[in-house]
Amino acid sequence: MTEPPPIVFKRAAAADPEAFIRRETAIASPPLVPEIRLHLATEITPIWQATEATLAHEGLPPPYWAFAWPGGQALARTILDDPAIVRGKRVLDFAAGSGLVAIAAAKAGAQSVTAAEIDDFAAAAIALNAALNGVHVPVTLEDQVGQAGPWDLVLAGDVCYERPMAERVTAWLRGLVARGAQVLMGDPGRSYLPKNGLELVTRHKVPTSLELEDRTERETAIWRLLAE
Predict the structure, then answer these.
(1) Which residues pair with 187 in a beta bridge?
(2) Helix ranges, the chain (H)
(3) In 3D, which of 227, 202, 228, 211 has the Cα closest to residue 71?
(4) Torsion of Cα atoms, 212 then 213 then 216 then 221, to 10°
(5) In the chain, is it the N or the C terminus that has fewer CB atoms within a 10 Å radius of its CB?
(6) Residue 14 pLDDT level (bands cut at 50, 70, 90)
(7) Of the listed ranges 53-67, 82-96, 111-125, the one predicted with least confidence
(8) Within 13 Å and on the Cβ side, how many CA atoms surround 105?
(9) What angle do CA 24, 36, 47 make, to 5 degrees?
(10) Are strands 90-94 and 112-116 parallel, antiparallel or unpaired?
(11) Which residues, 6+ apart, have CB-to-CB distance to 211 below 8 Å?
(12) How far apart are CA 79 and CA 85, in angstroms?
């Protein structure tokens, strides 16, 4: 069997996230949201095969932005199927990753959409993906946790996979709900999703890859977070 070629990233990419994204990803649509195109890692792109150690050696953060995670896909599908959820509202896509959810909100008629990320590569990916889909999505790299913000609706997909982050983010989001905002969370059964104070909105079956998940399909719920 022929060995695959070694994964080689150009060090200059670290100074130019946009060039790296264009070179190391392919334009594709998430399976649950075929209306939206994104720069994604696929089986034909080098970044799909890269390990976290390889990326760290090259000074590159883990490319969470290069995948359409189940929670984000389910949120985007829900919004596109029911645009009234976002229509006319000021929306924050928290931990936006690829920007999939923010793009769906913009396409569905939100008054304004901001994508929040803390990774320069994610910010570049969101800008490229928004342009691909003909929408305007400003990105903030400031940590929004703890901020009051002007948002009517906060969308958060796949944010409950680590306990410290899940607890910190959930407490902040509940505070926003108490002040009058709505919060929708997309979650495929992550370990640290709150056990209480959630109202089920809908469920979706999201096709997944065994490279990312432990099964080929994940039932993913959309929850409305309550203030408690």
Answers:
(1) 221
(2) 17-24, 46-49, 52-57, 70-81, 100-107, 120-132, 163-178
(3) 202
(4) -120
(5) N
(6) low
(7) 53-67
(8) 31
(9) 15
(10) parallel
(11) 48
(12) 6
Token pair for 8: 């080689």
Distance CA 149, CA 152 (A): 9
Nearest-CA neighbor of 112 among 132, 95, 88, 131? 88
Statement: residue 190 has pLDDT above 90 = no
Q: In what order do the strands lie in the sheet with 139-140?
A: 139-140, 112-116, 90-94, 153-157, 182-187, 217-225, 198-207
Three-class SS state of 87: strand
Tokens 């390990």 belong to 51
Going through the chain in order, the beta strands assigned E by DSSP cover 26-28, 38-40, 90-94, 112-116, 139-140, 153-157, 182-187, 198-207, 217-225
Query: What are 82's two structure tokens?
Result: 């029911």
The structure's pTM equals: 0.90
CA 144 remoteness from chain centre: 15
Two tokens, residue 27:
């334009």
Compute the distance between CA of residue 102 and CA of residue 112 in angstroms, rounded to an integer.
10
Q: How many CB atoms lie within 10 A of CB 1?
A: 3
Residue 154, token pair as written in the block: 């906060």
Tokens in use for 34?
């075929």
